[in-house]
Amino acid sequence: MANHPDILPPLPCGKLLPMHALPHLSAVDWISLVLFFACWGGYAWFSEHSRWGDSGLVRTTQTYRLDWARRMLERRFALPTQP
Q1: Global pTM?
Q2: Residues 38 and 44 sit within 8 Å (Cβ to Cβ)
Q3: 43 closest CA partner among 24, 29, 57
Q4: What confidence tens digit (pLDDT) does each residue in 7-66 have?
Q5: Between 24 and 70, whose confidence is greater?
């Protein structure tokens, strides 16, 4: 088998090659990545700090989780006894 520059030798089990994708991104990819994180951060801020955030999905889910946790703390926990 001839040595081909694009074919890497097999790696030992459990070893992975590092991926270096960031240097190969084009300008459009970088703009898309920045826009994605800006939208994600903007939504997170909006859902926490806006006047409409109180009825949003994030706040409603947090309220349900807190109610569930309070009910779990109020429950009596008893292990079954062995005969």
Answers
A1: 0.47
A2: no
A3: 57
A4: 766 666 666 666 677 778 899 999 999 999 999 999 888 877 877 777 777 778 889 999
A5: 70
Residue in 69, 70, 44 with CA at minimum distance from that of residue 59: 44
12 residue type, one letter: P
Residue type, 50: S
Measured CA angle at 20 (ends 24, 34), to 5 deg = 60
Question: Which DSSP string corresponds to the chain?
Answer: ----TTPPPPPPTT--PPP--GGG--HHHHHHHHHHHHHHHHHHHHHHHSTTGGGSHHHHHHHHHHHHHHHHHHSPP-PPPP-
73 alpha carbon, distance to own chain's centre = 28
Q: Are 17 and 8 in contact (CB under 8 A)?
A: yes
